[in-house]
């Protein structure tokens, strides 16, 4: 009878340990949702996992040819997509995947704008492989839209050589 009681206690200890381990699994490990946009050049296979991170960058030009209070923003999502907003179009977010050579699995972003007669908006995106991609878009008095962004950004994104982030 003592052997049965010992076995029963042993089973409850093992069951408790297994349950505790299941409850303590990090949600990132448990999350295995489809819809990844992993880069084909990625050294890691990200199928079924989120590959990006949420990030926001902004730039506010301060020159006479553009209206005061203008702000350009880039936001990235957990699936690695990136979007541009021109504050002259409230609520309109343009998928930067429209541009040629747009990176996938974007993990970070940066914006800057020159203040000249025709300003240039520099959009810099970092993908999961640590490679920086840059697009140069000509600003004007017309807000950026999905229709005019491709023309404003010319050749789209190009890789910045010798990117130090790896």
UniProtKB/TrEMBL annotation:
Record's compositionally biased regions (Polar residues): 34-46
Keywords for the protein's UniProt record, in alphabetical order: Signal
Domain of life: Bacteria
Region (Disordered): 31-51
Signal peptide residues on this chain, from the entry's feature table: 1-30
Identification of the protein by name: Secreted protein
The organism of origin for this protein: Streptomyces nojiriensis
């Amino acid at each position: 009878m003592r052997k049965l009681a010992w076995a029963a206690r042993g089973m409850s200890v093992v069951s408790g340990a297994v349950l505790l381990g299941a409850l303590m699994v990090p949600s990132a490990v448990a999350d295995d949702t489809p819809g990844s946009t992993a880069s084909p050049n990625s050294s890691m296979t990200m199928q079924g996992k989120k590959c990006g991170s949420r990030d926001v960058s902004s730039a506010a030009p301060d020159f006479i040819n553009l209206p005061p209070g203008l702000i350009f923003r880039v936001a990235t999502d957990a699936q690695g997509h990136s979007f541009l907003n021109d504050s002259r179009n409230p609520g309109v977010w343009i998928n930067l995947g429209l541009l040629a050579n747009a990176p996938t699995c974007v993990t970070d972003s940066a914006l800057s704008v020159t203040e000249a007669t025709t300003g240039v908006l520099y959009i810099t995106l970092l993908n999961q492989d640590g490679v920086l991609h840059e697009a140069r878009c000509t600003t004007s008095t017309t807000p950026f839209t999905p229709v005019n962004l491709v023309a404003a950004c010319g050749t789209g994104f190009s890789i910045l050589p010798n990117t130090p982030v790896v």
